[in-house]
Amino acid sequence: MAEQRGMVIHFMDGSKKVLEFPKQVADDASAASKLEEALKARHLVVEAEGALLVFPFDNIKYIQVSPAPKKLPGFAIKAAAFKD
């Protein structure tokens, strides 16, 4: 069975969309490259249930992905904890 991943897209209007999907790339370097590509594109593109979904970053408050990729951009803050 393919490793599963999860994503919660939190929108500016307070709504959210939950997605599950299999691991998309074989190695950490490819994952980091895909993340960088998506950030530069300024939109998230997802194929889900046979449909193409395009989410402009302007409509997204934040995206929560788990588990976190092992390789993150150099500017990422690591090992943080929520303190609400």
Notes on the structure:
With 84 residues, the protein is α+β, with helices and mostly antiparallel strands. It has a single domain (4-66), classed as SH3 type barrels (Roll), CATH 2.30.30. It has one helix spanning 28-41, and strands at residues 4-11, 16-22, 43-48, 51-56, 60-66. The strands form 2 sheets. Strands 2-1-5 form a 3-stranded antiparallel beta sheet, with no helix packed on it. A two-stranded antiparallel sheet has the order 3-4. The longest helix has 14 residues, at 28-41. The chain is globular. The N and C termini lie far apart (36 Å). The model has no long low-confidence stretch (mean pLDDT 90).
Quick overview:
With 84 residues, this protein is an alpha+beta fold. It has a single domain (4-66), classed as SH3 type barrels.
Question: Topology of this protein?
Answer:
Elements: E1 4-11, E2 16-22, H1 28-41, E3 43-48, E4 51-56, E5 60-66
Antiparallel strand pairs: 1-2, 1-5, 3-4
* Low-pLDDT sequence parts: none
The amount of helix comes to 10-25%
For the CA atoms, what is the radius of gyration?
A: 13 Å
Distance between the termini: 36 Å
Number of helical stretches of at least 4 residues: 1
CATH architecture: Roll
Largest pleated sheet: 3 strands, antiparallel
Order of SSEs = EEHEEE
Number of strands: 5
Q: Looking at CATH, which topology would you report?
A: SH3 type barrels
Within the largest sheet, what's the order of strands? 2-1-5
Q: Structural class of the secondary elements?
A: alpha+beta
Task: Report the β-strand fraction as a percent range.
Answer: 35-45%
Mean pLDDT: 90
Shape label: globular
The CATH class is identified as Mainly Beta
Number of domains: 1
